[in-house]
Amino acid sequence: VGLLFAVAPTGQAQAAAVVNNETELRAALAGSETTIELGASFTLAATVDVNRSVAIDGKDFTITGPAKGTEAWEGHGLVVTANNVSISNLTITGSGRSNLVFYNVTGGSATYVILSNAAHAGMIVNSSTVTISNVTTTNNAWGGINVDKGSGLDTEPQLTVSNVTTHTSPGAITPAIWVDKGNAAWVSADGLYTVVPGTPLV
Question: What span, in angstroms and rounded, lies between the C-alpha atoms of 31 and 34?
Answer without folding.
Answer: 9
